[in-house]
Amino acid sequence: MNTRVVKPDARALEEAGALIRAGQVVGFPTETVYGLGGNALDGEAVKRIFAAKGRPGDNPLIVHISALDQLSKVISGEMPESARRLAEAYWPGPLTMIMDKADGISMEATAGLDSVGVRFPSHPVAQAFITACGVPVAAPSANLSGKPSPTTAAHVLADMDGRVPMIIDGGACDVGLESTVVDVRSTPVRVLRPGGVTPRMIADVLGEVEVDGSVLRPLKQGEIVRSPGMKYKHYAPDGSLVIVKGSAEKVAREICALYDESDGEKRILALEAHIPLYGNRRVFSLGADAKSMANRLFDALREMDAERVNAIFSEAVPAEDIGLAVMNRLGRAAAFHIVDVGEDE
To answer: pTM, whole model, 2 decimals?
Structure first.
């Protein structure tokens, strides 16, 4: 299969929509990461998404809409009151809400669950693409299963060349991490995957929110995968990844020791202000704070693969606000290989 990368002009979007209606799969940009879209009403199209990614079918997909009046095709009945209030505050945007699924949504898209995750992206190209499709679009991130998510069309092409007919190039993604997933059927609502809409932001609207215990740990044996991104190892680079948490000075000493003991190509992932602590060792800057780290993390992990780095040592950030999302992704990328050196006394 020849994979074309196209700019999002009217003709290309019309062609992309026709491909989706014909049961094909298209890569497209959102404000979070790039998605790999297929017709959510067509089980065979959804199977093509899983085949392109090499992803097992027990991991549910998120269904994307471009207008609220499309919800009737996706969910059963009315929006819960909590969902309506969150939609007023954060849709369009990086928030996925789990609700009861409509009968027309394919069971392949929901991994057999009676619920569906729905998102209304804010990216103008994503909205134009979904509108051109004329159907709800089921889409995971547009990467090979388990690998770092793509934040540019070039990332998508690296993984999907020859696997899908078209990739729409909408530039670099703004957020850089997948959407927040919240189960609005729970009381209080429960965050299953943290993202750009933080628990504090949700609490600002609803008064309270719970964060699922699986956010910063592996799934337990037999635990149901209720949201994308809950698998034990996910977003992983080719090389080994170790996270070190604690005070900046203690973390730097531990990372320097681990770095010096390792062989082959090796890198350190650090916040900009801490780079002087690592001397002449090779460091990739994750920016000034947790927000910039969220934006740069997947790009950093893909850069490590491009440079064939076999040992990566990363600083942690406090697991609060957007930092919770960073540590969720980083933890799963490292299969929760975390060294805690403690804080300064």
So the answer is: 0.93
